[in-house]
From TrEMBL:
CDD domains: PBP1_galactofuranose_YtfQ-like (cd06309). Belongs to the bacterial solute-binding protein 2 family. It comes from Microvirga lupini. Residues 1-24 form the signal peptide. It is found in: Cell envelope. This is Simple sugar transport system substrate-binding protein. Keywords: Signal, Sugar transport, Transport.
Amino acid sequence: MKARHLLTTIGMAALMLSSGAAYAQSKMTIGFSQVGSESGWRAAETKVSKIEADKRGVDLKISDAQQKQENQIRAVRSFIAQGVDGIFIAPVVSTGWDAVLKEAKDAKIPVVLLDRSIDTKDESLYLTAVTSDTVYEGKVAGEWLAKETGGKCNVVELQGTVGSSPAINRKKGFDQVMAANPGMKIIRTQSGDFTRTKGKEVMESFIKAEGGGKNICAVYAHNDDMAIGAIQAIKEAGLKPGKDIKVVSIDAVPDIFKAMADGEANVTVELTPNMAGPALDALMAFKKDGTVPKKWIQTESKVYTPETAKAEYDRRKDLY
């Protein structure tokens, strides 16, 4: 009996080991070259990506590029060498990707772009891009401001990282509204690199250059973190953000909702941090049976004003 029990135990252990090995072999591994953690939104995207990967039993390996393209390219090559099942890239800038993407293609590793697009003549180098319509984001931000000011406003602009697709497109959309409203003009524009610290620094220089801020009707920031920095600069200059200088931005992170609830910001356009969910679904379907997704999977963008700020802050605060 003891011998039989021992054999049964050994057999069950072997079966468990065998099942575990089969699971380990079947579990998908994806490398994610993330831009960095320059903003609250970026940190949320990373957090949500991990959650979405865990839901699907995917091993997500994240590499923080610290906002440097050379680090991203190095990470992608490392993922290729590891033989991962797929690669996600949130490209820090839009150019200079063809060579490394060709290496991934030659290795038969599909690549998905997250929240940012790239400039390439060969779209076969990536499977799909999961992004919002960043031109639209800039446009609706500008349209809100045009309606709020009656089409008359001197605007200072805090651009995102130079060469990044969100910075290029959010400016493009906003500029379309400027062109349609002769009474509105951008009197100063400079990159704040999507960071709160740089946003504050640049806004301070704008205020000094424009009569202590008296010539500024509004600040348009390409993301909320720069807007929060601008709010700090406005307050330190003895002005009231949201009133003396209107604050318009993009992302919809909790801190901007808190600022709106406090009367210090006026509008934000949402960029969902859940890019990984749709990307994972597309990649898993492709790996399973060759289903080719649309080249652009568009996420939704919404406009938020102070009326719903407190409720939105409470809903989002634990995600960021």
